[in-house]
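#structure-requests
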Amino acid sequence: MAKKIINSIDRTALTPNYAPAWFTPIKGKKSILWDSNGNNYVDFGGGIAVTCLGHSHPELIKVLKAQSTKLWHVSNYLYNEPALELSELLAKKTFADKVFFSNSGNEANEAAIKLARRYFYDQGKLEKNEIIVFTDAFHGRSMLNISAGDSKIQKTGFGPLLKGFKRAKFNDLESVKKIISKKTAAIFIEPILGESGIIRATNPFLKGLRKIADKHKALLIFDEVQSGIGRTGTLMSYMGYGVTPDISTLAKGLGGGMPIGATLAKKHIAEAFQPGTHGSTFGGNPLACIVAKKVVEIISSQKVLSGVVKKTISFSKKLNALTEKYNMFSDIRTAGLWIGCDFKTVKSSNFIQSAYKEGLIVVQAAGDKTIRLAPSLIISDKEINEGFKRFEKAYKNIV
């Protein structure tokens, strides 16, 4: 059991926009973290779906060390080999022909919107600049992305927001048909709502969006910042749906912990990004790209992807068993190793604090009853079992 010991590190120089735990991790291996007081924690949060191969993966360390002795940065007035190799790998593994690299999902989504608008601008269709977005969406924290998102708290105090967005209801095709017009440049959607608690788009809904976009000569953009890179049991979630977008975004798990984002697009659309139209100083950084390349190579293997499916079943069984034993959850939603759990009576914030005390890390979701689990895609059975022992103790401590 982890002990609540106040960390001696001075945090007063940080802005107060986060509410971090009292402990500070100083090292990690696989799905275990250790804090500065020697306490260990089973990591079911994965840095919010980022550390997809756990902590300190030996193959990622190997390629990072090798690259660190060669080249760290050249900006984008020069090519670098890791960026070229990663872009080729992503194009080979996905629908895309071209890739733009940035530093985060926030930037990747901004690039996707800019690309869609510029694509129609270059065709002389200046009126096609509106973007259809959805209820309960989250796309990032920039001004553009909070405008596209649907969180009141994330918008409050930051107005005036950006114009050009129309909002439809998630999983409701009729709501899209009512607002789409000749001004629509793109339909922008998360195939699976992450921040809202792992809520899947239905297959008929996504297929319907593809047909509507085609009919109105608009683009279909998938935000796969969280759902991509093996999280759902396929390399990208669109593959499981059988619905191909025109543009898609990646980040989170792409770097396995290294900051990197990517905007993927078909060639005829990507041509709109001519020199000077868009850029990112650190986008395509050699260190981030060499690690991301290894991440994609490892996760796209059938062994890892089939393992995600098996581990999803394991998590589901254990969560359902807890519900049967304690009447714990009102709903459990899975999208591979990306799981949303709604407590019946317990507040998620209280559970998270109790979990910390027992040496377990989980993640808050929207609302005060929901938590998210997004563990390493290669988390071991031993780590899963230990994590659920701590999960049960954490719950029993607060009921």
